[in-house]
Amino acid sequence: MNVGFEKAFLLQTPVNLQYSEIISTYVYKIGIQSAQFSYSAAIGLFNNIVNFILLMLVNKIAKKINGMSLW
To answer: Where would a tag sit more exposed on the chain, N or C end, judged by fewer CB atoms within 10 A?
Structure first.
């Protein structure tokens, strides 16, 4: 779920801003530009938790299907 902040941020223009917003650019705008640090930290933490859950789920599925996993 990590696209890359720099690529998305640098390619944003006022024309495509509505459609090119991703989580990392949203966190930047809320945290740095709006100075809502706790809200942006909560969004980042939630994003990391979702990524961790997806990793664990896919790891278990891969272990059941192939018999191989990350650990």
So the answer is: C
Whether this prediction's pTM lies above 0.85 is answered by no
Per-domain residue ranges of the chain: 5-66
Between CA 40 and CA 31 the distance in angstroms is 5
The rounded distance, in Å, linking the Cα atoms of 71 and 63 is: 9
Place of tokens 């809502």: 36
pLDDT above 80 for 6: yes
Q: What single-letter amino acid sits at 9?
A: F
Q: Under DSSP, is residue 9 helix (H, G, I), strand (E, B) or coil?
A: helix
Question: Distance between CA 29 and CA 12 in Å, rounded?
Answer: 13
